[in-house]
């Protein structure tokens, strides 16, 4: 228990020395009180104007206890100084050895300097001071304590307070070892806190610019290193605008070298009180300083490095410290819990960007801690600012010193936090942490928080933003937390979120909404050109609705590139109404360099619906290119995949040079159209337009399309040009040209024509219904022969496994027709008959054919294959024919191939099948499958036909080669429309 001063203060003029004026002047006006006795005895006679603990010895035996007694009793009307004359080295005073317990409180203003009289420091050993004893208790004002070693007291090393509290404060403690031995390297801790500032006593300074003359070592204590207690509302209030407490230049939790652990059992620094009571009268404190080498080393403590708890009249500032590292900021000496905790505490400033005249501000290095680097918790924790810190890395922002939790964790309803800013001095480097760089979450019952803002940081990279120092999990994870801004369109607001071990950004949970991700580089270096991909997705939205990845504003788009999996992945049925706008997905910041994401540019799966990729407002379109290099099989890395879910609208984007197709519905190979589009797959497997005719003029071309889909419905058609055809045959869409509306008829068909400049090459199209279901891209078919340009030159890879299943070796600028003719035994024509047909097709005039190369004719590919099919009659139109086709379509070699399923599927996309048969049920010469009235071809393949000239009437008439050729051409004409 601390002592009170002796009651009944006496006059300095006692009876014994009433006439001794000269000794009074000699001893007290100088106000330097010299301790020359290392004992602990009290003043023998406090009223005799002499400091003497033992009158039986010659001279005055001045113990520290006796000096403090005399100062308190008579001399505290003026500041006094205590020096020591106890010899060199580190003399020891065994407090309590006299049986009188702890030293008296210090009242008024008293400076104690142990670095005097040849001593390095004077040690106060409290091992005999008894229960409840603290080393020194400062209850006055403006005292200075320096050059002491204070250890082994059952309570605190130093207590600062008032009588009654709060005290007047203004004390300074410097160059003391509190809780260690005289070398500052061994644990001789006090039982409580190293320094306790009671009841918000203001204006105290603990330490100074880091040096042997200023720095305290406050380590090894049983409580906190420094504990600043909030003002209890039962005490008298503080005056208006009280001065702040300042703690800087100290070693708190380490030895005197700042390189070895000597932790306090509690927190390094604690400021505040119980979260439940008001601390509105408490002034803020400054922990660290905006001076070179003036911050604290707060490391190796068993609690948090710094804990700030509750509300304060003025903000707390924490800057320039090493929290969890050695004094160089390069070695791990982590605190056991969080580096910094802000618990229900608003408006604190962590870090500093105020630039002194000649040097940059020192950052906080908050690394190596057992919890998170910084934790902000509680609904009252609003308006906190984090700027210019190194969190999870060394002082230079180059090497990971991981915090075992997150770099920054905002939870419990904390809100309106600003992490970073728009200038480089406000930039945090949040990298190398074992979990996420930043995690913001809340309990579902917490109220909706005001917006948290993350601006201008490097998250997962080094300070230069040119090398990965990844966090172990996501760069940023927002979990069931709304109203967050990540980045911004303003200059300097961009975050670089790259090199992390999971997603760059994760938005998770149904309460995560109104998160806006703007202007960031996600997966690249700070130059927007170097690949520094996150290990999984650039952005992953899981169960979250109503969020924005990019905006249409100038500078509002992100670069989302070089990530290991997808650029953007949206999952779960509740993930709706998310908007993806103006991003570069798979490119560099210029939109031209190849920085593709490993799998898809954008993937929507697991039932996510009603999301939008691009849009119709100016600037909303995304650039999605070069993605899929890591996809397996090759060619499955598409620009956009809608694996499941409906109403996912894809509008006005630039999609090109992805390893797979531009758009894939159903997460399979290309999706073939079907009749009237009555589907229940991804985006309802919306059909795409089909090129039906192409005609050319001098400087333009006109393409007629047919869309077959839901009858009596309105669709938006978007038209694109490309610089090259996609290998799949189904176009991508590099340059958006325009859109238009069409309405289907009762058959579900809409026929429309569009005229393009001759420079608009490799035209593709999509169709979007009124519910936002967008199709895959249409086939790019320059010559209008219903064969994709890429198929004609490169062949067909039906299952998109990287192996060509069928080679066509044809000219995409000259129309082709492919027919596989087979024959029943005894009814095969001579090849010359087919050659005559081939010649006739080849002579068709170009004014009718409209070949892009300007040459006449259509190239007919028709080589007679099998000629020994068992003869039979076609009685039921195509029933028997279909049986024959199932058994004989494709060559014998193709049917026997181990890859026959894909070979024949590819061939069905191109080849019509025909049979020279015996006879039909009557004397008809054959039959062809006719297109419908709107010229819509069979969406499952090509229309087929057969020639039957085996009826006795035909035989009697005489079946010549010309009749065979003419009948072939007649039936082929039916199926060609």
- Characterize the largest beta sheet: strand count, sense, and whether it forms a barrel: 19 strands, parallel
Indicate the percent of residues in helices.
under 10%
How many H/I helices?
A: 10
CATH level-two architecture of the domain at 816-976: 3-Layer(aba) Sandwich
CA-based gyration radius: 43 Å
Task: Fill in the CATH topology of the domain at 816-976.
Answer: Collagenase (Catalytic Domain)
Separation of termini?
Answer: 107 Å
Folded structure, characterized:
- By secondary structure, this protein is mainly β.
- Among the domains are: 1-107, no CATH class; 674-786, Immunoglobulins (Immunoglobulin-like, Sandwich); 816-976, Collagenase (Catalytic Domain), CATH 3.40.390.
- Helices cover 9% and strands 25% of the residues.
- The protein has ten helices and 67 strands.
- The protein has a 19-stranded parallel sheet, with helices on one face. It has a 17-stranded parallel sheet, with no helix packed on it. Strands 17-20-23-26-29-32-35-38-41-44-47-50-53 form a 13-stranded parallel sheet, with no helix packed on it.
- Helix 4 crosses helix 10.
- The protein is rod-shaped and about 160 Å long.
């Amino acid at each position: 228990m601390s002592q009170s001063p002796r009651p009944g203060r006496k006059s300095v003029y006692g009876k014994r020395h009433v006439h001794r004026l000269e000794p009074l002047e000699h001893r007290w006006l100088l106000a330097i009180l010299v301790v020359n006795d290392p004992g602990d005895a009290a003043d023998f006679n406090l009223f005799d104007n002499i400091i003497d603990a033992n009158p039986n010895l010659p001279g005055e035996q001045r113990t520290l206890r006796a000096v403090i007694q005399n100062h308190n009793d008579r001399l505290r009307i003026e500041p006094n100084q205590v020096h020591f004359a106890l010899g060199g080295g580190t003399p020891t005073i065994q407090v309590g050895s006299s049986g009188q317990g702890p030293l008296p409180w210090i009242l008024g203003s008293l400076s104690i300097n142990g670095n005097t009289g040849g001593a390095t420091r004077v040690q106060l050993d409290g091992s005999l001071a008894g229960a409840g004893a603290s080393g020194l208790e400062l209850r006055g004002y403006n005292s200075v304590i320096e050059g002491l070693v204070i250890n082994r007291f059952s309570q605190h090393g130093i207590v600062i307070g008032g009588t009654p509290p709060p005290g007047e404060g203004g004390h300074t403690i410097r160059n003391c070892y509190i809780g260690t031995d005289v070398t500052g390297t061994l644990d001789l801790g006090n039982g409580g806190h190293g320094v306790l500032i009671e009841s918000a006593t203001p204006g105290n300074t603990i330490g100074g610019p880091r040096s042997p003359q200023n720095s305290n070592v406050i380590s090894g204590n049983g409580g906190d290193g420094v504990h600043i207690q909030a003002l209890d509302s039962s005490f008298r209030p503080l005056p208006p605008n009280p001065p702040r407490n300042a703690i800087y230049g100290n070693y708190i939790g380490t030895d005197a070298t700042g390189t070895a652990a000597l932790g306090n059992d509690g927190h390094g620094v604690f400021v505040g009180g119980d979260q439940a009571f008001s601390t509105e009268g408490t002034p803020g404190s400054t922990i660290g300083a905006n001076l070179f080498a003036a911050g604290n080393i707060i490391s190796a403590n068993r609690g948090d490095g710094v804990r700030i708890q509750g509300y304060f009249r003025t903000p707390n500032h924490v800057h320039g410290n090493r929290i969890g590292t050695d004094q160089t900021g390069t070695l791990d000496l982590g605190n056991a819990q969080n580096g910094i905790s802000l618990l229900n505490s608003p408006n604190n400033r962590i870090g500093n960007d105020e630039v002194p005249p000649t040097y940059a501000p020192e950052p906080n290095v908050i690394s190596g801690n057992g919890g998170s680097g910084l934790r902000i918790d509680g609904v009252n924790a609003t308006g906190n600012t984090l700027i210019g810190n190194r969190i999870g890395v060394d002082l230079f922002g180059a090497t990971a010193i991981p915090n075992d939790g997150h770099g920054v964790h905002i939870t419990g309803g904390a809100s309106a936090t600003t992490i970073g800013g728009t200038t480089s001095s406000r930039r945090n480097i949040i990298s190398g942490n074992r979990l996420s760089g930043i995690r913001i979450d809340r309990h579902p019952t917490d109220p909706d928080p005001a917006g948290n803002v993350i601006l201008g940081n490097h998250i997962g990279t080094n300070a230069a933003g040119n090398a990965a120092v990844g966090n172990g999990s996501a760069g940023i994870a927002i979990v069931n937390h709304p109203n967050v801004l990540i980045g911004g369109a303003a200059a300097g607001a961009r975050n670089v979120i790259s090199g992390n071990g999971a997603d760059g950004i994760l938005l998770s949970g149904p309460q995560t909404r109104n998160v806006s991700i703007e202007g960031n580089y996600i997966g690249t270096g700070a130059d927007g050109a170097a690949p520094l991909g996150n290990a999984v997705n650039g952005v992953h939205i899981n169960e979250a609705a109503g969020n924005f990845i990019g905006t249409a504003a100038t500078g509002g788009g992100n670069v989302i590139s070089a990530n290991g999996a997808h650029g953007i992945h949206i999952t779960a049925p509740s993930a709706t109404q998310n908007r993806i706008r103006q991003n570069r997905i798979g490119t560099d910041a210029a939109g031209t360099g190849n920085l593709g994401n490993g799998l898809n540019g954008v993937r929507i799966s697991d039932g996510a619906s009603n999301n939008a990729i691009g849009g119709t407002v100016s600037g909303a379109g995304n650039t999605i290119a070069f993605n899929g290099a890591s996809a397996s099989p090759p060619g499955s890395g598409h620009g956009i995949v809608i694996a499941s879910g409906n109403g996912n609208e894809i509008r006005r984007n630039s999609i090109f040079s992805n390893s797979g197709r531009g758009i894939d519905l159903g997460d399979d190979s290309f999706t073939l159209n079907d009749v009237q589009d009555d589907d229940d797959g991804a985006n309802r497997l919306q059909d795409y337009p089909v090129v039906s005719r192409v005609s050319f003029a001098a400087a333009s071309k006109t393409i007629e399309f047919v869309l077959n889909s839901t009858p009596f419905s309105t669709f938006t058609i978007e038209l694109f040009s490309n610089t090259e055809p996609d290998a799949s045959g189904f176009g991508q869409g590099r340059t958006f040209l325009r859109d238009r509306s069409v309405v289907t008829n009762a058959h579900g068909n809409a026929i429309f024509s569009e005229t393009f400049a001759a420079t608009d090459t490799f035209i593709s199209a999509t169709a979007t219904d009124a519910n936002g279901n967008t199709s895959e891209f249409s086939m790019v078919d320059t010559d209008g022969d219903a064969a994709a340009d890429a198929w004609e030159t490169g062949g067909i890879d039906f299952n998109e496994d990287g192996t060509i299943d069928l080679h066509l070796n044809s000219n995409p600028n000259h129309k082709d027709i492919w027919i596989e003719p087979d024959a029943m035994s005894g009814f095969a024509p001579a090849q010359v008959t087919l050659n005559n047909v081939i010649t006739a097709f080849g002579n068709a005039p170009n004014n009718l054919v409209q070949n892009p190369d300007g040459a006449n004719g259509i190239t007919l590919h028709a080589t007679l294959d099998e000629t020994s099919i068992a003869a039979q009659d076609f009685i039921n139109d195509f029933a028997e024919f279909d049986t024959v086709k199932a058994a004989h379509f494709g060559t014998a070699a193709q049917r026997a191939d181990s890859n026959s399923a894909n070979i024949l599927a590819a061939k069905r996309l191109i080849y019509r099948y025909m049979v020279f048969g015996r006879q039909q049920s009557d004397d008809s010469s054959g039959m062809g499958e006719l297109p419908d009235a709107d010229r819509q071809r069979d969406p499952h393949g090509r229309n087929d036909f057969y020639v039957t000239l085996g009826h006795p009437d035909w035989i009697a008439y005489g079946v010549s080669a010309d009749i065979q050729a003419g009948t072939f051409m007649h039936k082929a004409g039916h199926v060609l429309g």
